[in-house]
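Because discrete structure vocabularies remain unfamiliar, it helps to consider an illustrative case, giving the amino acid sequence and backbone structure tokens:
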Amino acid sequence: MANIKSAKKRVKQNEKRRIRNKALRTRMKNVTKRLLTAIETEESPEKVQELLSSSYSVLDKAAKKGVIHKNKASRKKSRLTVRAKNYLESHK
């Protein structure tokens, strides 16, 4: 355990950030999984579109807060968009 005051403060800050980052990562994983499940189970196109936009939002927030790199967020959004687009085109 840290003895210096600034080191103790850092430990507290790191713990807060770890918890926040973990929550955001879990949220990212869940929203992505929900979208992919909706595509696989052939949900309504409106539902898929709604889940896609919420995925964008969660990924952008995670990138903005530094949980993931902005390029990783862009890559994930791009890959989700391709999957959703293919599904939506086949279910018009």
